[in-house]
């Protein structure tokens, strides 16, 4: 028995060493969710390549990964530049031999009504939030195909399904990522590839972006409540990397928004017109600003924004397949209930006719 336990411990240690030596690339890793994810992998002992534009924040995030127990490689690059992302992927492989996980997290947005946006603003949001994920995916595939192994993670949002006012360019880009990912997933299935691809739909998160994103609005910005801590969301992302479901919905607001859109999209249109419009502003006055759309902002705020006192420290997650299955079961239950009720009502409606027929039969027998 003792030898068997020793073998199990040795086997567990070997598996842990293999897991800890894995390589993950995180784009948008210098702040917000991306930074929290990079540090979370650092705590797991991973080798973490961090890609972002702001060199000061990038180097600070890399130090934080090292302090957490990981090995960091900081690579300044703009995800909108396909050549730069290809070069970054090659640098990671040259340093560590492979890429096990690639997380496409970088994003950009602009707040304002559609009529306030310029073509250049829409183009830039699209280049970063949509094409940035395409560039990262293609760079990862180039190296993962050589080993026929790896996991690509697309960081989406509840807004990948449920658009809201004042962020039309960002919502459109997230919808595009979902379409691109679904097509690629089918192609990988067709090839019989062992490369896994998963899309994670996030809720509102307390990140610094609301203090530096480009805005045409007259008030300070905020995530649409309820707000979640980036560290809690990062832990959910790490767990999703292990299992790589087709899709993961993180946070109860995400689940509610997606299922609500499937069931009653018109109702949510009207709700968003009121709640999401006001919910993205704090009520405190502010001046429109250029923000970080074209240039990285100065400073190093870290992963968290200014809403920590309101941020939820825990977050629930469910796979999209499971959530859809539950919705289908509920819908089938409602249909079955309606059919049963209709059958009973019909049966009751027929009972008086049967009674009247019996009365006639008895009367006829009495006459005869």
From TrEMBL:
Residues 350-368 have a biased composition (Basic and acidic residues). Belongs to the short-chain dehydrogenases/reductases (SDR) family. Residues 22-208 form the Ketoreductase domain. This is SDR family oxidoreductase. Keywords: Membrane, Oxidoreductase, Transmembrane, Transmembrane helix. The chain crosses the membrane at residues 326-346. It holds the Pfam family adh_short. Residues 278-309, 349-368 are annotated as: Disordered. Gene3D superfamilies: NAD(P)-binding Rossmann-like Domain (3.40.50.720). It comes from the Bacteria.
């Amino acid at each position: 028995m003792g030898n068997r336990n020793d073998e199990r411990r040795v086997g567990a240690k070997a598996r842990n060493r293999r897991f800890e030596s894995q390589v993950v690339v995180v784009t948008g890793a210098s702040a917000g969710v991306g930074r929290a994810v990079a540090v979370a992998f650092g705590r797991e002992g991973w080798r973490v390549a961090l890609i972002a534009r702001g060199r000061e924040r990038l180097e600070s995030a890399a130090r934080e990964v090292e302090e957490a127990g990981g090995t960091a490689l900081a690579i300044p690059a703009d995800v909108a530049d396909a050549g730069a992302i290809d070069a970054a992927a090659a640098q990671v492989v040259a340093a560590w031999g492979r890429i096990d996980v690639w997380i496409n997290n970088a994003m950009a947005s602009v707040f304002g009504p559609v009529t306030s946006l310029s073509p250049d603003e829409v183009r830039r949001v699209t280049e970063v939030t949509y094409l940035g994920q395409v560039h990262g995916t293609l760079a990862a595939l180039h190296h993962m195909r050589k080993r026929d192994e790896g996991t690509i993670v697309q960081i989406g949002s509840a807004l990948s399904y449920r658009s809201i006012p004042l962020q039309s360019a960002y919502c459109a880009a997230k919808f595009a990522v979902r379409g691109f990912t679904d097509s690629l997933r089918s192609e990988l299935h067709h090839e019989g590839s062992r490369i896994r691809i998963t899309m994670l739909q996030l809720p509102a998160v307390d990140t610094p972006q609301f203090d530096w994103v480009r805005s045409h609005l007259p008030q300070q910005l905020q995530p649409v409540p309820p707000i979640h801590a980036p560290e809690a969301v990062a832990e959910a992302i790490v767990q999703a990397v292990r299992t790589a479901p087709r899709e993961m919905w993180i946070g109860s607001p995400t689940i509610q928004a997606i299922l609500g859109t499937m069931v009653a999209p018109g109702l949510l249109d009207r709700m968003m017109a009121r709640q999401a419009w006001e919910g993205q502003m704090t009520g405190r006055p502010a001046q429109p600003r250029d923000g970080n759309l074209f240039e990285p902002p100065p400073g190093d705020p870290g992963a968290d924004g200014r809403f920590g006192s309101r941020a939820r420290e825990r977050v629930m997650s469910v796979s999209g397949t499971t959530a859809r299955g539950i919705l289908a079961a509920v819908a089938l239950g409602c249909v079955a209930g309606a059919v049963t009720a209709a059958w009973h009502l019909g049966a009751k409606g027929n009972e008086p006719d049967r009674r009247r027929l019996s009365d006639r039969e008895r009367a006829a027998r009495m006459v005869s």
